[in-house]
Design brief:
By secondary structure, this protein is mostly beta strands. The protein contains 1 helix and 15 strands. The chain folds into 3 domains: 60 residues, Roll (SH3 type barrels); 62 residues, OB fold (Dihydrolipoamide Acetyltransferase, E2P), CATH 2.40.50.140; 59 residues, OB fold (Dihydrolipoamide Acetyltransferase, E2P) (Beta Barrel). The chain starts with 11 loop residues before the first strand and ends with a strand.
Length: 191
């Protein structure tokens, strides 16, 4: 059990047998003649829905015990919008996760990539991405001459279909490093 003062973004709690990840917290708030409280916005890791809840010092908050294991990303079914995964050692051990749960994480991984999965009660509920990934630029508009004294940017499409804003010198075929937390361009790896 943890205290309402220990709640911060990234913590995973168990509420009604569901794992909920804290995405935002108001911090400890105490108004006149009221008990101190902490309002928290959480994302359900199974369904992807968000919920807001206020905790006080009398609340008993259970922290989730999560495990990680390696899995292999296979493909995304365009009809059902489910991502298919399997065990890296046994391709017949397949399972799927709905796109609502994964959000935009699929834009950072290639087919047949080995990634970490987050497990709760023996079931995979989400995936964990590295902080930065290297992806190839599939399509980049040509550079536009003009006022670039303040620095110019353009939107490129990566091999996974993800769109990222990059500097003007990035071209089709370049490999760039992208931050998976912010979705921002970091650097060019290979020209």
């Amino acid at each position: 059990m943890i205290s309402y003062t220990e709640l911060k973004p990234g913590k995973v709690l168990v509420i009604d047998n569901d794992p909920l990840e804290v995405v935002w917290t108001s911090g400890i708030v105490k108004k006149q003649r009221q008990k101190p409280h902490n309002t928290v916005k959480m994302r359900n890791l199974r369904t992807g829905s968000t919920v807001e809840k206020t905790f006080t010092q009398s609340d008993k908050i259970e922290e989730a015990e999560l495990d990680t294991k390696e899995i292999k990303y296979l493909y995304t079914n365009p009809k059902t919008h489910e991502a298919m995964f399997c065990s890296p050692t046994d391709p017949s051990d397949r399972f799927s996760l709905p796109q609502e749960v994964l959000g935009d994480k699929l834009g950072y991984i290639l087919e047949n990539s080995i990634i970490d999965a987050i497990e709760f009660d023996g079931k995979v509920i989400s995936i964990k991405l590295p902080n930065k990934v290297n992806l190839k630029v599939a399509d980049a508009p040509p550079n536009i001459k003009g006022n670039t004294s303040a620095g110019g940017n353009k939107v490129v499409t990566l091999e996974t279909g993800l769109k990222v804003t990059t500097p003007l010198f990035i071209n089709t075929g370049d490999i760039i490093r992208v931050n998976t937390e912010t979705g921002a361009y970091s650097e060019r790896v290979v020209k």
